[in-house]
Amino acid sequence: MDQTCYPFTLPPLPYAYDALLPGLDERTLHFHHDKHFAAYVENLNKLLEDQPALQAWPLERLCRDWACLPEHLRQGVRNNAGGVYNHDLYFRTLRPGLAATPAPALQEAIDRDFGGMEALKAAMKAAAMGQFGSGWAWLAADGQGGLLVVKTPNQDTVLPLCPLLCCDVWEHAYYLQYQNRRADYFEAWWRLADWTGVSQVYGRRFSHPFF
Ligand code: MN
Q: 104-205 adopts what CATH topology?
């Protein structure tokens, strides 16, 4: 997200709507980005419009600290701030064209923590398939750069872990194109993952100039 606080605006899809074919089609991206993602942005703004103190909270803080909020705001902020945060990352970490590979620092961490790319993919797929109902499968990093695969229900984020890559397994992410075939959607999503961008995020956060 360009803006970190209220009022939030929907970031444009960072590529053309037909750029991810054949893995994700235009209809899916129009509904997912222009309707579902947009609704989380609108609903979050609506929740915060008469909450001046919360309007200064960055998105990450809303996602992390929703449990501290007054009861009437808690669940709405949890769902909608999470929805904004998660979808922003989801669309930013897909890329058109041929699949890239992780840069050396991230590849080393994948080898160390999973035993290689195929094992990471298997762990991500198990998380994506094992999330009962709506939710997300994630590649995330802990404070030291250690990698983990986790799943979250609904629009819960992985904060305070550092999210690197996320597979949206809500049916709205794939049903128009894949119907009930979540595994086929996962395979398409995996081929579209932007390892170049993910490597940059990982490198900025965890590589040390003196290593
Ligand atoms: Mn979604």
A: minor pseudopilin epsh fold (3.55.40)
d(CA 19, CA 82): 26
Question: How far away, in angstroms, is 117 Cα from ligand 1 center?
Answer: 25
Map out the domains of the chain as residue ranges.
26-92, 104-205
pLDDT at 24: 98
Ligand 1 geometric centre to CA of 177 (Å): 14
Would the pTM of this model clear 0.90, i.e. be above it? yes
Phi, psi (degrees; rounded to nearest 5) at 17: -65, -20
Q: Measure 138 CA to ligand 1 centroid, in angstroms.
A: 14
Measured CA angle at 35 (ends 7, 187), to 5 deg? 115
Q: How far is the CA of 158 from the centre of ligand 1 (A)?
A: 15
Cα 74 to ligand 1 centroid, rounded to whole Å:
20
Other beta carbons within 10 Å of 104:
11
The CATH T-level fold of domain 26-92 is: Helix Hairpins (1.10.287)
Distance 104 CA to ligand 1 centre (A): 30
User: Which tens digits make up the pLDDT trace of 23-74?
Assistant: 999 999 999 999 999 999 999 999 999 999 999 999 999 999 999 999 999 9
- The tokens describing 22, both together, are 């054949």
